[in-house]
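Lab meeting, action items carried over

1. Structure of the three-component assembly. Owner: GW. Status: complete.
Input record:
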Amino acid sequence: MNETLLVRQNGSNQQFLELKEVSKDFAGLRAVNEVKFNVRKGEIIGIIGPNGAGKTTLINMINGFLPVTKGEIYFKGLKLNGLPAYQICALGVARIFQNKQIFSNMSIIENVMIGIHRRGQVGLLPVMLNLKQARKKEKQYFEEGSEILSRVGINLNPYRLAKDLSAKEQTLLGIARGLACKPMLFLLDEPVAGLSIEEIYTVANLILSLRKQGLTIILIEHRMEIVMGICDRLIVLNFGQKIADDIPEKIRENKQVISAYLGEKLI
Amino acid sequence: MNWEDIKYMRVVIWGMLTILLLLLPLFTSRYIQSILIFIEIYSLVAIGLCLLTGFAGQISLAQGAFYGIGAYTSAIISLRLDISPFLGMVCGASVAGIVAYVLGKRFLRIRGFYLALITFGFALFVDNIFYRFDFLTGGHDGISGIPNFSIGGFIMNKDFHYYYLLLVAISFAFFLARNLLRSEIGREMRAVDLFTGGSEIASSALGVNIGRLKTKIFVIASIYAAVAGSIYAHYMTHIHPQPFDISSSLLFLTMIVIGGIKSLWGGIIGAIFYIGSRELISYFMGGATGWDLIVYALVFLLVLMFLPEGLISFPQKIYLNQAGKTTPYE
Amino acid sequence: MLIERIFEVFLSGVTLGCIYAVIGLGFMVFFNVTKIFSFTVGEFAMLGGMISASLYSIGLPLAVAIILAVLASCTVSIIVWLFFLHRPFSQGNPAVTIIFITLGIHLLISGVAYIVWGTAFKEIPYFSQVSPLVWGGATISPQSLWIWGITSLTIIGLSLLFDRTLLGKGLRACAIQPLAAKLMGINPLYMAFASFILAAAVASIGGVTLAPLTMTQYGVGVGLTMKGVLAAAVGGMNKARGPIFGGLTMGLTESFVGAFISSKYMVAAALGVFIALLLVRPQGIFGVKEEV
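Predicted assembly:
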């Protein structure tokens, strides 16, 4: 991926996201063990590691889906662990799922509108009485949603059902939904799984443009093309433990990382 | 026959039905009118329950209790404090709403918690209060002498008054519920519902407060039931605890299942079916026997096993096919 | 005298609580394996009581009547399963639908019971015709001893089943992680079926032991279901001690409030206590909170 621009920004040195000795136990099995790292504003961080290393578990903890067994997670100084997922979203953290989890029987515009709701709903009584303000808000949601859809590159009829979309379009839809929440931190869990090289290229460029718009991004991926190409730093997990935290070139030569992947070729 | 023809036909049919509905009291006996009134009262409860069970996916066993709370509160307040019955109805609805809010806030935030559990206990608790707390509710004998609804000097003491009042109430209730389902809140409900391709996980990651959403719907359903109960009380002018016990809660559930839980019309159809079948069977078998319960239970089971979308699914499928939609509330 | 009275009330509360505990265990067994809230548990308890009463009244010896009643309840549960639950379970129908089906089964069974027995109250005599004992100043009816004994045997029997037999281990596997159980060759459908019959058996034992204490009637099913469910809910449904503790709490509260405050308000008071307990600790006293 030599064509990709490798933009290494130095954001401000403010600690944007901090993980302190974060651990997760599942009935005696320690899935994540005292993971510690920091993310600066504007970085694109990649989290990589063999299957089962605990990457998604870690994201689930940042997101609020799993309670932290030990340790703390701070986002812009606020403690995240212990808060429910919807509140963490309201604080500015959005997320993509490994298995997409799109609302399949809803149209793509409605999928996006869900995220927009959060930023100012009309309220129960006005919607039940179908007052003018409710109808105006609906139009607003629709316009905002359409704008977000075109921003990520979906140029389809907004009333298309989400389940009719191709894999790449579903990925873009997932990103659009997350963007609707106006996040500052975006967690992408294997966004390009199952996509072709060209499609990965498109998504990678989208991610870079998101960073230009001010987002900080954490990316879990197996496809090395995207990971090596756009990440400022890589964090490598193995058996729930952090074994490396460095720029991609150094990670490529890290003996521990290579042996962890045991035979997988790093591009 | 194209869509335009069908739309025209629909308008005509609906128009005729509406006129028929409006004119019914003129040529029906008081007995039939009272049956219709009960169908209407149960429909009101059922619409609220459809919202809760069909669209928010929660099973409540307390609708009978809320129905009773509406009835008793309204009766006690208007009788003992000498206030207008309409105000009593508002009080009844408020009490029900507050209780539902407290229960919902505490229990609906917990993932996988069965609302059925706490509403079961709550229904039994309320039932006991109605039967045993004589000083308040009159115990087994209940409360008599409840005033009719009145506006200004006009007292509503004829059956057909309540028939029309309920028609207005049901129309309004339906209007509110339909707007809700088509709104942002309806969208969130669909996003959370597993059976319409939704996902609780994705929704909460996008900021939907699922517990608060379900609580809102629970409160709405409880208010619908309480208003129905209050109208019942002022219509009958005498209430006793038996219609508000756990079996009525269970019956409301069966009604909406038979009618179709995923449709507001399903509630109305279910009420019509329940009362209609009950009256027909006792007419043919000379009074209440166990058979009406068995027949009803069998129909209920058959619908569940072979027609899970309820009786409404026949006309609903035709309508949706013709209109090119997949769900009725987009 | 007061101490003795308290002890007596305590013991009768324990007796009552044992029965609620047994029914609660029946509910819990099926719920843990299938995660289905079943309305049928009280019906099988009712059938246990009513069938044993009828068999006794046509001249069968009490012990025979009881055993046949429990077997009959199990048979009914098998028939009910095959007709109404087998297909929905094997087709993977949504839980809400199946819960409603159990509601329909409850209505059906009470409807049939009404046709068969009408509104008559049935009773069976105490299991042993011995004069009441006195222990620590309190008078105990021998029926209480029977109930404690049968309850303990039931609990021991269940734990032996779950710990020692293959069926029991299969049931537990399904309760904890159905997917893994399936991968190990355990058939969840068969486990659901087995737990349904087991729940019916346990509930009917509870109903039979209850019958001599309070008369039984076609309509008691719903109330018993409620009490069993609440016992399990308040105690916590993750371990057996949950319904036992919940049932005992319920029985004791009813007993004490009934004896010292007023029998009129005793059920309302007990329920109020439960709702309050659940408000404070929704997962039950011994339950484990599911992660949000």
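2. GW to write a short summary for the group page. Key points so far: The domain at 34-323 of chain B is CATH 1.10.3470 (ABC transporter involved in vitamin B12 uptake, BtuC). The mean pLDDT of chain B is 87.
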